Amino acid sequence: MIFFGCLLVLVLVAQIAELFIPALPWLYNAHVYIVPVIVFYGAMALPFPLMLALAFFAGVLLDALTVQVIGGKVEISAGSSILLYGVLAGIMHGLRPLFARGRWEVHCILSGVFTSLIVLAQYLMITFRRGSLVFTPEIWWQIGGPGLIAMAIAPIFFWGLQWLGQMTAYSYGPAGGRAE
Amino acid sequence: MRHGGQSAITMSRTSLISLLIFGAILGYFLTFGPETTQKFKSGVYGLLAPFLTGGSGIKKQITSVRSGLKSLDQLERENAALQVENRELRATNQGLRNVEHEVNRLRHALNYRERSVFKLVAAEVIARDSSAWWRTVTINRGKRDAVETDMPVVTDVGLVGKTTTVSDTISVVLLISDENCRVAVSIEGSREQGIVSGERVTGGLTPFLDLNFLSKQADLKPGQKVYTSGVGGVFPSGLLIGSVKTFHVRELDGQAQLTPAVDLSHLEDVFVVTGRR
Q1: Is residue B45 domain-resident?
Q2: Which chain A residue has the Cα nearest residue B207?
Q3: Paired sense of beta strands A177-178 and B254-260, if any
Q4: B242 phi/psi in degrees, rounded to 5
Q5: The CATH number of the domain where B255 resides is what?
Q6: Which of A7, A22, A106, B96 has the most CB atoms lying inside 10 A of its own CB?
């Protein structure tokens, strides 16, 4: 449970840190998303119920910080991020045996792909409300850029989180998860 | 074997129960209406307020250290031949210049507040939007400072946006560069009126604004100033929004692109308009 608690704290810190990390002007103002990388690591390292709890926590934070109520209308329903994180973390959880065998590259790539999927899903939802479905190169970069960044930082974060797991004496097997 | 089988059944049962709980809570969240969502957002922002304010302070310190190092580096390059004392004096000077800049900035803001016809609440931008699809900033003023939802936010230069989510101590400001922030405007030297809104995505550092619903004969010229018209009730009339960059005629109407008067990418101090004097 210590490791799970650490992941919750890290998600909170990362979510707040994201507010202070400026968008990257050289990548069409793409944003840096750290939280998905932590959640997807947790999806592999934690047992199913705790994975869901982590996805829920991250989803609540993302919903609270991104959902906009303008003119009495909600653009993206509260809960949509919880659903997104839940589904994507569930898929990642299914690939857990591969991770336990030391195959990290698939998960690093998937972390990037899933991060982009979250941004794409948000874009599709706001487009559904606002109308005019457009996909300019800038929009593709806004969607793909965060994924590429997540892919690039995932190995460092995975390594750091694995080290944290060892420090907190957290252990898990390929078939089932067992905290401490 | 039986023990192992039982364990597997227990595991899947635990997973199933947790999945059901997850689904139930998710379903509860999905039923939130606008008011409940606003309250939920406001509540979470209230909880995060100390972290956001603290984070803003840390960021300022980091930026200050970074800019300090940059000027030292410049000094090293420019004054390689100078002695150590000289370098120290220049560094001190640089520090004083930073203070002077801050004093000037605050004095400027204070002057604006005193001469303004509006009741203004001074606020500091503590965080920017973390999402790709919304243009918002967070300010360090909330309900305790008489800030409410849908209040205009300005600088001494012009309009910045309006408040959306307001917690006790912090508020979210939707910038005019957001596609959802629509402002009724009039154009200097013209009878034309239109609606300004932001663009969905901006590739460059400076966002541009779209001025829609103009007549085809509007024929706006670059540099013409655009002000709020006061229609709609949220924004008072006469606030500068920006100036015309380009104008083109579409099939049914005319559209102009505006350069915002306020540099929205470098906001530091803003004012919330809480009423008229």
Answers
A1: no
A2: A29
A3: unpaired
A4: 175, -165
A5: 2.40.10.350
A6: A7
Query: Which residue ranges of chain B lie beneath pLDDT 50?
Result: 1-5
Closest CA to B241 of B195, B173, B274: B195
Beta strands in chain A (DSSP E): 69-70, 73-74, 171-172, 177-178
User: In this structure, is residue B140 part of a structural domain?
Assistant: no
Q: Is B232 contained in some domain? A: yes
CA B275 to mean position of chain CA atoms: 20
Look at residue A177 and tell me if it is in a domain. Answer: no
The structure's pTM equals 0.80
Residue A61 lies in a domain: yes
Domain that holds residue B234: 183-262
Q: Where are the beta strands (DSSP E) in A9-121?
A: 69-70, 73-74
DSSP state of A78: T
Question: Using one digit for the tens of pLDDT, what is the confidence trace for B120-143?
Answer: 899 999 888 778 788 889 999 999
pLDDT value, residue A179:
40
Chain B hits for A52, Cβ within 8 Å: 18-19, 22
**With contacts defined as CB-CB under 8 Å, which chain B residues touch A15?**
130
CA distances from A5 to A14, A96, A176, B47 (A): 14, 20, 19, 18
pLDDT for res B11: 61
Mention every residue, 6+ apart, whose C-beta is less than 8 A from residue A115. Answer: A33, A36, A37, A146, A147, A149, A150, A151
Domain that holds residue A13: 2-17+34-170
ipTM of the complex: 0.83
Considering only CB atoms, which chain B residues are within 8 Å of A138?
Answer: 201-203
Number of domains in chain B: 1
pLDDT of A180:
37
Supply the pLDDT for residue B70: 57
- Cβ within 8 Å, pair A139-B38: no
What is the torsion angle, in degrees rounded to the nearest 10, for the CA atoms of residue B221, residue B222, residue B223 and residue B229?
60
The pLDDT assigned to A90 comes to 93
Per the domain annotation, does A57 fall within a domain? yes
Number of Cβ pairs closer than 8 Å across A and B? Answer: 147
CB A150 within 8 A of CB A111: yes
DSSP-assigned beta bridge partners for residue B174: B136, B162
Does residue A62 lie in a domain region? yes
**Tokens 């993302």 correspond to what residue?**
A62
Per the structure, the count of domains in chain A is 1
Most B CBs within 10 A among A46, A54, A56, A69, hence the mutation to make, goes to A69
Helix %, strand %, coil % of chain A (to 5): 70, 5, 25
Q: Indicate the Cα dihedral angle A24, A26, A30, A33, nearest 10°.
A: -50
Q: How far apart are the first and last CA of chain A?
A: 7
